[in-house]
Amino acid sequence: MMQTVWFILVAFMLTAYVVLDGFDLGAGALHLLAARTDEERRLLLRSIGPVWDGNEVWLLAAGGTLFYAFPLLYASSFSGFYLPLSIVLWLLVLRAIAIEFRAHLANSLWHDFFDGMFCIASLLLLVLFGAALGNVIRGVPLGKDHYFFVPLWTDFTPGPNPGALDWYTALCALMAIAATSLHGALYVAMKTTGRLQTRMAAIANRLWPAVAIGTAAGLAATVAVRPRVLDNYRAVPVGWIIPIAVVVALGGMRYCSRRASERNAFLFSCAYMTAMLAGAAFALYPVLLPSGNDPALSLTIWNSSAGPSSLSIGLIWWSIGMAIAIGYFTLVYTMFRGKVDNRAGDGHY
Amino acid sequence: MNDALFIHRIHFAFTVTYHYLFPQLTMGLAPLIVVLKTLALRTNQAIYDDAARFWTKIFGINFVAGVVTGIPMEFQFGTNWARFSEFTGGVIAQPLAMEAVFSFFLESAFLGLLLFGERRLGRRGHWWAAFMVFAGSWLSGFFIVAADAWMQHPVAYRILPGGRFEVTSFWGVLTNPWALIQYAHTMSGALTTGSIVMAALGAFYLLNRRDSAFGAIFLRVGVVAGIIATAAQIFPTGDLHGKYMARHQPATTAGMEALFQSAAGAPMVILGQPDIEHQRIDNPIVVNKLLSFLIYGTTRAEVKGLDQIPKDQWPTNIPLLYFAYHVMAGLGTVFLAIMAVAAFLLWRGALQQSRWMLWILMLTTPFPFIANTAGWLVAETGRQPWLVYGLLRTEQGFSANVSAANGLFTLLGFMGLYAVLTLFYLFLIERQIAEGPAPAVPGAHA
Question: What is the torsional sign of CA B108, B109, B114, B119?
Fold first, then answer.
């Protein structure tokens, strides 16, 4: 019971991370494409400036909570995905430096350098995060000691000896780029005016079909690679509400961006991301990390969790801390509501 | 020594040592910025607002460097110390997760307001932003120290069948006596760094005969905070820490002092090199009976030497532990002496004219970073051969599924990345110092 509660809490935090940091990662991935002049690039950075760091804290908070509630999962997956995760850490460092150091020097070479770094790091992070989700769905070659190690790639097939990158996880990576860029484009369009907004809205319109097709293709590929993902849906048919939510959110996104209702289009995109992750979590439960070979070796909420006393004590700090954190977020997003303006000197970026 | 174990140890040691160069300054400057903001509110003089704004810029650059090098730490428990994480996550991740939930969210919300919200918030609102960032950074430090303190002195835990630890009391880990003492000692160390850096930059401007009004403020705030911090570093925090350690980690104390033979009226070695093979100190300068007195308050008390400790429980690198401890304690003493003289001159109103003292203050800049690093080396090498003192040995904790070659690959990657970060950091800090604290347009502040 407690294990299920913590499964939901960790899934909630990861979803919050993907939805929130997703829009600033997506904005970053489109940075060079959509924001052409220095003024537009500063505008884009200003649209995420006060919030991107807080968004990223969800990753740390989720990581820490995972470490606490499911220590074996944290230990096994972080060491097993050692190489891709280390690259993620490097990219997070580079991306943060790019955002924060860019404005310190009024020099166009300096700006171009950090613009490029911000864009490439954001893009590669989406590749790695997408592939990570793909790996968790596909499964990894867990040993009897609950540990594994995947290289970056092997023969690019999700067979018995997979790498972090194979055709399936690469597809997930592409899907992550498309969906998150769309998410970011809708966000920036909502927060800005002028040419940047127009361009972002146009990019969003072009990305939408790719995301719609990608969603269908991704689902088909997932069922092909891991047929067991449908088990929970068969056992608890009410779960089908999640894929329906995905379809509704996709439709809503299209409908609202057609009618230039930016805010609602972005909210539908948030709903889409949430539903996609909820669908994955629902399919996995109670498995946390499937074993690619012998299902009995999978890491589940039962064999990976901390002791019962830890799990109940954790609810104390988790609920207090989350209540406060949600308070901060409400404060920051309320202060930052509306369009960011283009005036020089307002803020840092 | 197992190759992979060695690489994973160096990996964590390098990344955490580099990381802590930044947070010690963040945590040291944060309260000083609050002091400057308070002075501005109290005196209503704009120069204090300008001074605070200047330090906030340096703080902002430093904060970014601390955050980006801190993110990898949160994940390295899992990547490089997987079995340690598996066994202890149910306890040690409590303070680690609490750090993210209670301080990172707070800092992320208020840092932007501190750095860029001065006009919008007004003076009182901006003071609060500074205060909240200070509170967040000090809270953050507490959770990390609490995690480390649990490894030093495990409390409030139970071992489950299969070897996993779980926490048995919410407050137990947070009110670990070791954590409270270590926190006080760590924070006075951070404040030592912050106040020396502030005083040193004040001295730099005064020696350069530029921005003298600001230089005088930096000097005054830095020296007043510095005398408090450097004194607290030794007494009571260092004193308490040493006494507590001698009682609960006698092997560490014996290693720090290179005390090979137990002795009543044990001497304290001031200088000298430990010779492990012959179990003696070469070139010793010692003060008789001082160690017994410092630990137990009487010159007759017996201090446990390494001879009473099984060899497989000796700290694994006694010379490093010994030197780190002597560097830390030696520098701490020198800092107090410098600050005492500087404070005396300040009190007599002669500090700004005493160029020799300004030179000394300016040249002290790198040493608090060295002293803080040495202090953490004492804590971490002193705990060896244990990860969790007395319960889990270091060789039981590393990621056995990550090969030495892969560990080396990412270690080199981090080294390269941090070399680049160092260049950017120094470049940007140098620019702020060169630009100076005076507002670009005189009287342009809101």
Answer: positive
Rg (CA), chain A: 20
CA torsion sign for A183, A184, A188, A194 is negative
Average of per-residue pLDDT values in chain B = 94
Structure token pair of residue A170: 């690469």
CB contact under 8 A, A325 and B101: yes
- What's the rounded Cα separation, in Å, for the pair B57 and B74? 26
Indicate the DSSP class of residue B99: I
B299 exposed, middle or buried (CB, 10 Å; 0-12, 13-18, 19+)? middle
Nearest to A64 among B67, B91, B97 (CB): B97
A328 closest CB neighbour out of B105, B160, B401: B105
For A142, list phi and psi in degrees, rounded to 5: -70, 135
Torsions phi, psi of B77, nearest 5? -60, -40
Query: DSSP states of B217-242 as a string?
Result: HHHHHHHHHHHHHHHHIIIIIIHHHH
Distance between CA atoms of residues B404 and A221, nearest Å? 36
From chain A, the residues in CB contact with B440 under 8 A are none
- What pLDDT, on the 0 to 100 scale, is given for residue A1? 87
CA distances from A58 to A22, A65, B56, B187 (A): 11, 10, 25, 27
DSSP A112-164: HHHHHHHHHHHHHHHHHHHHHHHHHHH-B---TTS-----SBSSSS-SSS--S
Nearest to B160 by CA among A2, A71, A1: A71
Amino acid identity, position B411:
L
Cβ within 8 Å, pair B78-A313: no
Burial label, B13 (beta-carbon count in 10 A; 0-12, 13-18, 19+):
middle
Query: How far apart, in whole angstroms, are the C-alpha atoms of residue A174 and residue A210?
Result: 10
Beta-strand runs (E) in chain A: 287-289, 299-300
ipTM of predicted complex: 0.94
pLDDT in tens, A170-191: 999 999 999 999 999 999 999 9
Closest in B102, B399, B428 to A79, CB measured = B399
Best B67, B96, B426 residue to mutate vs chain A (most A CBs within 10 Å): B67
Residue B243: CB atoms within 10 Å: 17
Candidates A24, A55, A86, A346: best to mutate against B (most CBs of B within 10 A) is A86
Which residue in A59, A65, A89 has the most chain B C-beta atoms within 10 A of its own C-beta, making it the best mutation to test that interface? A89
Residues of chain A with pLDDT under 50: 345-346
Cβ-proximal residues to B404 (8 Å cutoff; 6+ apart), any chain:
B3, B4, B6, B7
Neighbours of A259 (CB within 10 A): 10
B260: β partners: none
For position B444, what pLDDT does the model report? 45
Nearest in space to B98 (alpha carbons), one of A8, A319, A1: A319
B-chain residues near A317 (CB < 8 A): 94, 97-98, 101-102, 170
User: Do A117 and B441 meet the contact criterion of CB atoms below 8 Å apart?
Assistant: no
Query: How is residue B396 annotated by DSSP?
Result: G
pLDDT tens per residue, range B39-57: 999 999 999 999 999 999 9
Alpha helices in B285-403, H assignment, sequence order: 290-296, 318-347, 355-363, 366-383
| Residue ranges in B262-309 assigned as alpha helix (H) | 290-296
CB contact under 8 Å between B116 and A79, yes or no, is no
Q: Which residues of A touch B90 (CB under 8 A)?
A: 68, 71, 306-307, 310
* B23 prior amide bond cis, ω within 30: no
Query: What whole-number distance in Å separates Cα of residue A213 and Cα of residue B122?
Result: 51
Question: Over the Cα atoms of chain B, what is R_g?
Answer: 23
